[in-house]
Amino acid sequence: MGIDDSDDSSDEPGSPEDETTAQAELSGASQSEPSQQSTASHDPNSEPQSEEETDSEEPSQSIEDMLLEFDNQKGLIRERSLLDPNYVVEEDRIVGRDEQLQEITKMLRVALGDNRPPNLFLYGPSGTGKSLITKAVCHNISRICEDRDIQFGTVEVNCQDLDTLGIAVYELVQQAAEEAGVAVEVPKHGVATKEKWDELYRIVNDHFDSVVFVLDELDMLVGRRDKQEPAYSRLLYQLSRAGTNDDLNAYISVVAISNDTKMMESVGSRAVSSFTPEDVHFDDYDANQLQAILRRRQDAFNDDVVDDDVIPLAAAFAAQTHGDARKAIDLMRVAGELAEREGDTRVREKHVRTAQEKVEKNRVLEVVRGISTQKKLCLYATAAVASQTDGGSARSTTGYQVYQYLTDAIGADQYHQETYVNKMKELTTYSLVDFERRSHGPSSGMFLEFQFGERPETILETLREDSRIEAVSEDEVTSVVKAQIRNQT
Ligand SMILES: Nc1ncnc2c1ncn2[C@@H]1O[C@H](COP(=O)(O)OP(=O)(O)OP(=O)(O)O)[C@@H](O)[C@H]1O
């Protein structure tokens, strides 16, 4: 029996660890901003001060006084949790996902009859309600099962921060133990992954009749690169197979969630034949749906403090990129916090505009902080092209020419075009960029057209914080880009 793949760490830049830090900074970013509020107030009616008095040091306000003063200010946000994208809202606040709700309910309801529900694959862009709908359905099943004396459990893990298969299985063990209210009896490190699987089976068999395993952001569980099959594929194989052989007596269903619509294409054939999921697609939200979602949370704010144009504007900004509800909610929260910090009595359009800049920049930062210089160069070149085209998109062929210019300019290694394209494709995982395959007719070759999820200018601005990229003249890059775009036909 081998020791587990605890050395199975991802060496890829942009590993989950980098992102966790960025995520933490993202969520805390708005709180850590220095306050705009001036504490030194000048009373225009006060007596003119003598020269001497003016020169003397005013006693500064104590921290306690400042805290109490801020505490006494009437806030604009009444129910902050409604503006937290990680908070699971009640069912009556879910809008515009009737079809998916119905489909998933129909398939998972089998658990109520003490039977095995099918496996599911939920896919679609970020922030389109995949996790929310799954949680809502499982929560309801759990309630009804309780009444019927069926031991139903939901074991949910987010795979974004899990580097290896061994760690992912341990995470499942931990979540299962928490759901069952028991202790984990296997160590996290230094044992074979098989022992962790056995512990998972033990907990599930001892405590549940039926379990839904929810594997969120499953495509992020890549694992060791020297393995033939990605870790997510091995996890799906093992888990779904255990549900059909003697390892697990409980009925189990695996719900795999991914932003990557093509994830199933890279799942190995063994896993495909044991997983065989029902697919449920989640579309982008349009501006009207996003408005409806935000209106159902408007009571997060005090009565009558949000200007009429605030929600439509936040929804329009979020719809412009991917129709991401998380972004729409983030915009409302940041706009509200900005207004509060300015001491304003209302949330206004201008707060949403400033929030848009902050949220967009944070999202880009979240992605680019952790990636390698080479990936940054690929991204910079492609965004530079997109920033100069009418539709905001960039052809891979043109992007590569600009990438070559950049690598020459800073004396970096230069990849072949195929590697450049692969690096860009890898970046699609983060929903920052998407691509379509195109051609200009039978005589010309194929190319990929990259579309950005955020404004290319924000990406360029953020990437220029890297000193190597900053050293390249912006004007020169722009003229190279323009020349290359002219050469395109
Ligand atoms: N239909 C909806 N009604 C109300 N709120 C929604 C809806 N869809 C998404 N949200 C909210 O948007 C945020 C993101 O949703 P969720 O986590 O379900 O997205 P997701 O598709 O799983 O995205 P990701 O792949 O990035 O995890 C959550 O705060 C969720 O409450």
From TrEMBL:
Residues of the signal peptide: none
CDD domains linked: AAA, Cdc6_C
Compositional bias annotation for Acidic residues: 1-20, 49-58
Keyword ATP-binding included in the entry's annotation: yes
Polar residues composition-biased segments: 21-43
UniProt superkingdom: Archaea
Binding site for ATP: T128, G129, K130, S131, L132, Y285, R297
Sorted UniProt keywords: ATP-binding, DNA replication, Nucleotide-binding
MF (Gene Ontology): ATP binding
Domain AAA+ ATPase: 116-286
Pfam families: AAA_16, Cdc6_lid, WHD_Cdc6
Function of the protein: Involved in regulation of DNA replication.
Protein name: ORC1-type DNA replication protein
Organism from which the protein derives: Halorubrum saccharovorum DSM 1137
